[in-house]
């Protein structure tokens, strides 16, 4: 019944020219403000991680490792809420692989269990183990890695051999260095790297503890500098802010492109549905730390944030302003109502995954072959994300912002082409 | 432009355009039926004689039929992840090889019960798992289990193909043709149905250009011919050609008016592909061969641009979100 009235409203919208309560420029300002606050929060938390890593490397202990893990988990909360800025903003999309590339062949970085295997068709470097090898060959060239620096990670190792799974930098590389491989399969339990992997004396486990520490420090320093750069892009006068404000329709389209692409292709498809269908715990987004329920939850929240024009910062303060929701409501109240309802429904589904995981039914257990309850939880969220994507498409239509795609003869899902 | 498009949107009160009708009746339904028949024949062949060399022709025929509809990634192919199960590719983490190896090493008993086998990781099912059994030399001396695994995969493929055929024929065709009807929450307007099919067309062209060609091309200094789609069964270029033929058929059905520019672009792309004479796309490994593959990739991108100008604009739709939007 509601759907029929939506159709009626859609038709009514054709005869009445809606008065816009909020201007597109104001909505874009709110969007850029949320981005700026989100990346600043991510930067603040990454600096906390950097301090915890320095403490760990200065005086390795079980407590220090645990403290570093805790700051990593906190750091994911604001960062995941920024993922909605990826698709649609070329500046973010081109940069994102540096900080959140996933999935990774972790054998590139450090020792792995024998069950991991070695090089594959796709990745000849899957078991390179930089921590253990100060000198190695890459594409026929000898690489001097006697000192592990941010420049080595970013310039030579990251995506080495043009293989995306060669993730040498970012949150997930750091996650692997803090937790180690999760060898529990689809049973309960995360990675369990011993703190002695960072011990500086005879207690050193796993070999090359000093090099492992160098790697962890280089990767953390790089994360901080990368986030610092991105926060600047969204500040007043920054390029990312200027890019969305430059053309109002293109800017509004970028918001919706980010919402739809993250909801559907990325989160519902790549990260959630595929994991269930492969029954593979390594398909978990935060697979070493078993934090996947949170990374999915805050991805979903980020989509809702930019639509409703509000973001709760890590200090509890609220960034809010004229919202895309207002623009859509002015064009077609039914489409706005349906989209808000679907965003909320998604948060309920993602909240159920989060609460089940926090109570001990961890995300990797949900992925186990034949685990009907886990599959139902995950697929419930996938369906909610797919439903919300259809509403996002309707919002694109009622706002008419896909016109720019016609004019450029380019597709909505090809932001690079639209924006260059 | 804007006013014209808004007006066009308002005039579209019919439940389906002629193009949508043509896609359903002349394109989708015959193709899902063809795939169901091919998969059933593969299943029957495996039941009778599961040896690799005798199964290969039925395997190739099933893959050919799949290429005829794999671009229709909406509805029944998307639901329950059927398309992913039938053809899990790209496999960026090498899961097919590992999963098949594990099934054989453990002699996983799921192969003996279809409902249990349907729960196995998609990396151990579908066309790419079967390709390993039929085209990689079997050195583990476990022919008896491999035979049962091949039969299980063939049976699973046939089941999926029948489900797709039934879902299209009894449900999804009606949804596309009766947009806005009571109970049809998938398509509220004819424009949404057109947009979904147009999205399938553009996504299909992008997939062939960016994945089927782009993945083996890799980077100029790091080509990766070993990741070409279905290289073990000798199909990389064949899949490119069959997908272009299927997408051309979709474009012609979907358009409500002549599309000379798009037709010409398809003809050029297909001619370029056939002239490659490089079934495995192995040429990407050297600069001149890579250039020829890159030319083909550009031809496909030009086809996409032509389709956007001629079909997208006429239908008043842009590309919707699609499953390949992620990274």
Automatic annotation (TrEMBL), chain A:
It is found in: Cell envelope. Residues 1-21 form the signal peptide. Coiled coil: none annotated. InterPro entries: Imelysin-like (IPR018976), Imelysin_sf (IPR038352). Gene3D superfamilies: M75 peptidase, HXXE motif. Its main location: other. Keywords: Signal. GO terms for cellular component: cell envelope. Residues 35-391 form the Imelysin-like domain. This is Iron-regulated protein. It comes from the Bacteria.
UniProtKB/TrEMBL annotation, chain B:
Coiled coil: none annotated. Residues 1-18 form the signal peptide. It is found in: Cell envelope. Residues 28-304 form the Imelysin-like domain. One of its GO terms (cellular component) is cell envelope. Keywords: Signal. It holds the Pfam family Peptidase_M75. This is Imelysin-like domain-containing protein. It comes from Marinovum algicola.
């Amino acid at each position: 019944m509601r759907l029929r009235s939506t159709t009626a409203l859609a038709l009514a919208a054709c005869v009445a020219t809606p008065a816009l309560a909020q201007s597109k420029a104001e909505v874009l300002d709110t969007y850029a403000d949320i981005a700026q606050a989100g990346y600043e929060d991510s930067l603040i938390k990454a600096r906390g991680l950097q301090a915890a890593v320095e403490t760990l490397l200065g005086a390795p202990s079980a407590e220090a490792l645990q403290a570093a893990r805790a700051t990593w988990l906190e750091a994911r909360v604001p960062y995941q809420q920024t993922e909605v800025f990826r698709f649609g903003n070329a500046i973010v999309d081109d940069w994102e692989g540096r900080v959140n590339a996933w999935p990774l062949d972790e054998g590139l970085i450090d020792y792995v269990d024998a069950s991991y295997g070695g090089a594959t068709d796709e990745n000849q470097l899957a078991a390179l183990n930089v921590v253990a090898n100060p000198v190695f060959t890459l594409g026929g060239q000898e690489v001097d890695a006697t000192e592990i620096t941010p420049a080595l990670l970013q310039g030579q190792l990251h995506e080495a051999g043009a293989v995306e799974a060669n993730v040498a930098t970012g949150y997930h590389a750091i996650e692997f260095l803090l937790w180690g491989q999760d060898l529990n399969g689809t049973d309960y339990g995360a990675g369990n790297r011993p703190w002695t992997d960072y011990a500086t004396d005879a207690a050193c486990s796993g070999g090359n503890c000093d090099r492992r520490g160098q790697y962890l420090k280089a990767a953390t320093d790089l994360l901080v500098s990368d986030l610092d750069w991105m926060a600047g892009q969204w500040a007043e006068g920054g390029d990312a802010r200027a890019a969305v404000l430059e053309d109002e329709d293109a800017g509004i389209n970028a918001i919706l492109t980010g919402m739809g692409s993250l909801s559907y292709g990325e989160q519902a498809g790549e990260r959630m549905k595929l994991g269930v269908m492969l029954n593979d715990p390594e398909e978990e987004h935060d697979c070493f730390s078993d934090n996947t329920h949170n990374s999915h939850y805050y991805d979903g929240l980020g989509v809702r944030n930019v639509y409703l024009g509000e973001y709760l910062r890590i200090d509890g303060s609220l960034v809010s302003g004229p919202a895309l929701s207002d623009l859509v409501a002015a064009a077609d109240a039914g489409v706005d109502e349906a989209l808000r309802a679907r965003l909320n429904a998604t948060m309920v589904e993602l909240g159920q995954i989060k609460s089940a995981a926090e109570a001990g039914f961890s995300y990797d257990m949900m992925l186990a072959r034949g685990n009907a309850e886990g599959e139902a939880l995950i697929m419930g969220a996938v369906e909610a994300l797919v439903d919300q994507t259809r509403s996002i498409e309707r919002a694109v239509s009622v706002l008419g912002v896909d016109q720019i795609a016609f004019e450029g003869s380019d597709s909505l899902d090809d932001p690079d082409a639209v924006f260059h | 432009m804007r006013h014209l498009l808004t007006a066009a949107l308002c005039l579209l009160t019919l439940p389906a355009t002629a193009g949508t009708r043509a896609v359903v009746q002349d394109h989708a339904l015959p193709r899902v039926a063809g795939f169901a028949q091919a998969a059933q024949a593969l299943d029957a062949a495996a039941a009778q004689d599961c040896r690799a060399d005798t199964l290969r022709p039925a395997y190739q025929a099933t893959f050919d039929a799949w290429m005829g509809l794999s671009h229709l990634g909406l509805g029944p192919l998307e639901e329950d992840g059927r398309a992913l199960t039938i053809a899990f590719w790209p496999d960026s983490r090498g899961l097919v090889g590992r999963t098949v190896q594990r099934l054989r090493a453990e002699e996983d008993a799921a192969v003996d019960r279809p409902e249990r086998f349907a729960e196995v990781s998609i990396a151990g099912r579908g066309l790419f798992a079967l390709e390993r059994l039929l085209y990689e030399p079997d050195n583990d001396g476990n022919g008896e289990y491999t035979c049962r695994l091949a039969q299980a995969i063939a049976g699973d493929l046939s089941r999926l193909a029948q489900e797709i055929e039934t879902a299209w024929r009894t449900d999804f065709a009606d949804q596309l043709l009766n947009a806005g009807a009571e109970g049809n929450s998938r398509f509220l307007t004819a424009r949404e149905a057109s947009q979904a099919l147009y999205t399938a067309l553009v996504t299909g062209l992008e997939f062939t250009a960016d994945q089927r060609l782009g993945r083996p091309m890799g980077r100029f200094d790091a080509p990766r011919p070993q990741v070409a789609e279905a290289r073990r069964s000798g199909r990389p270029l064949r899949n490119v050609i069959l997908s272009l033929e299927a997408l051309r058929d979709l474009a012609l059905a979907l358009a409500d008016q002549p599309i000379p520019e798009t037709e010409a672009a398809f003809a050029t792309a297909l001619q370029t592909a056939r002239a490659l004479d490089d079934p495995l796309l192995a040429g990407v490994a050297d600069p001149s061969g890579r250039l020829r593959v890159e030319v083909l990739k550009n031809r496909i991108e030009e086809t996409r641009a032509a389709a956007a100008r001629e079909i997208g604009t006429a239908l008043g739709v842009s590309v919707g979100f699609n499953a390949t939007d992620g990274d």
